[in-house]
């Protein structure tokens, strides 16, 4: 099959540090190319792939610091329109950017819903109801019941790259993009209530989030009980996961999937998270971690980590969230759309 992977251009594919969507795009691109498909990746010019790369700009937009970064999206979208006849199917990972172009594209389009959904998204889905959508969790799929063409496909990770560790250190971990809805302040509260050390890893993008970190997060970092280790590349991220006693996910937003949870569990690390969005689907309560409702409950769950078998965390990811399973399902979906001839 001739498959286009249309990725966001804010950060490279694969990501250097944070970037769940871009990590999934990379694994899909490389996996499908390895199976003999003719794959083209539309992404920033500093992306790395064995597939053909078509880029609108030499550097990812968050790093390029352009005066008008959204102008580059016009080039990105035009590249797709210009090359569309070279593909059998187009896989869109950019959400609403591409939806209005669907009427001008003569090939089937798969739209994976990577981000949390808002009421505005629902209006868009109503307008473009004939498109093919892929929710990444049951919770996300149930939140838009009016989607006419939808197929749930969970994200997957290459478990062999996440090294299992049965004997971790005694620290808690929070890792994500540093924004209020990811709950870093609640993670600090949990560490203080439980008396545990906490390591915080993540990147800060945008002036608003820089102010949030400077004025609300940084004053709580003492360098001893609460440590900020900065951005983590892949190797550093895996080391943090595999040596953590638990990953804290006090997310207040309706999480569409939460790739960090599967990455942590693949290393054997339990997850303690609020019961928002897909978290109860990813974390098996009492088996691979705990699903709680409050900061106090999260702190209490830290004291119950001895009940969790780290091998069970690894097993859950291998059985449900492997990259092979994800590629199998997308390969099947692409084939069916091409055979149906439906745009």
Characterization of this structure:
- This protein has 343 residues and is an alpha/beta fold.
- The chain folds into two domains: 2-156 and 322-340, Rossmann fold, CATH 3.40.50; 159-320, Glycogen Phosphorylase B (Rossmann fold), CATH 3.40.50.2000.
- Helices cover 38% and strands 15% of the residues.
- The chain has 13 helices and twelve strands.
- The chain has helices at 20-34, 61-64, 69-83, 119-127, 138-143, 184-194, 207-217, 234-243, 259-266, 279-282, 295-302, 310-320, 323-340; strands at residues 2-6, 38-42, 52-54, 89-92, 109-113, 132-135, 171-175, 197-201, 226-230, 246-249, 271-274, 289-292.
- The strands form two sheets. The chain has a six-stranded parallel beta sheet with strand order 3-2-1-4-5-6, with helices on both faces.
- α1 (20-34) crosses α13 (323-340), α6 (184-194) crosses α11 and α9 (259-266) packs across α12 (310-320).
- The chain is globular and about 60 Å long.
Q: For the report, how would you describe the main beta sheet? A: 6 strands, parallel
Give the overall pLDDT as a whole number.
94
Tally of distinct domains: 2
Order of helices and strands: EHEEHHEEHEHEHEHEHEHEHEHHH
What is the overall number of helices?
13
Extended strand count: 12
- Which regions are unreliable across 5 or more consecutive residues at pLDDT < 50? none
**Rg from Cα:** 20 Å
The dominant shape is globular
- The CATH homologous superfamily of the largest domain is termed Glycogen Phosphorylase B
First-last Cα distance: 16 Å
Q: State the CATH class of the largest domain.
A: Alpha Beta
């Amino acid at each position: 099959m001739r498959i286009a992977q249309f990725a966001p251009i804010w950060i490279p594919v694969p990501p250097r540090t944070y970037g769940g969507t871009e990590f999934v795009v990379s694994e899909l691109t490389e996996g499908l190319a390895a199976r003999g498909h003719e794959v083209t990746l539309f992404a920033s010019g500093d992306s790395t792939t064995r597939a053909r790369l078509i880029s609108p700009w030499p550097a990812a937009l968050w790093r390029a610091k352009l005066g008008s970064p959204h102008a580059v999206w016009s080039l990105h979208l035009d590249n797709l329109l210009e090359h569309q006849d070279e593909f059998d199917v187009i896989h869109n990972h950019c959400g609403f950017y591409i939806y209005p172009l669907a009427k001008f594209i003569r090939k089937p389009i798969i739209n994976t819903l990577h981000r949390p959904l808002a009421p505005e998204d629902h209006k868009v889905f109503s307008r473009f109801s004939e498109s093919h959508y892929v929710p990444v969790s049951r919770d996300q799929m149930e939140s838009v019941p009016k989607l006419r063409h939808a197929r749930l496909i969970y994200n997957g990770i290459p478990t062999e790259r996440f090294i299992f560790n049965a004997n971790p250190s005694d620290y808690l971990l929070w890792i994500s993009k540093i924004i209020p809805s990811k709950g870093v302040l609640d993670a600090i509260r949990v560490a203080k209530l439980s008396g545990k050390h906490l390591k915080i890893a993540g990147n800060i993008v945008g002036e608003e989030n820089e102010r949030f970190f400077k004025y609300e997060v940084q004053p709580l970092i003492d360098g001893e009980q609460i440590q900020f280790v900065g951005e983590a590349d892949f190797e550093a991220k895996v080391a943090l996961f595999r040596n953590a006693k638990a990953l804290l996910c006090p997310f207040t937003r309706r999480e569409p999937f939460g790739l960090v949870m599967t990455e942590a569990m693949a290393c054997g690390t339990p997850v303690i998270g609020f019961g928002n969005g897909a978290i109860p689907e990813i974390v098996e309560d009492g088996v691979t971690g705990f699903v709680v409702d409050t900061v106090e409950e999260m702190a209490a769950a830290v004291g119950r980590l001895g009940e969790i078998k780290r091998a069970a965390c690894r097993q859950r990811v291998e059985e449900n969230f492997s990259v092979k399973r994800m590629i199998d399902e997308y390969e099947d979906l692409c084939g069916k759309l091409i055979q149906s001839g439906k745009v």
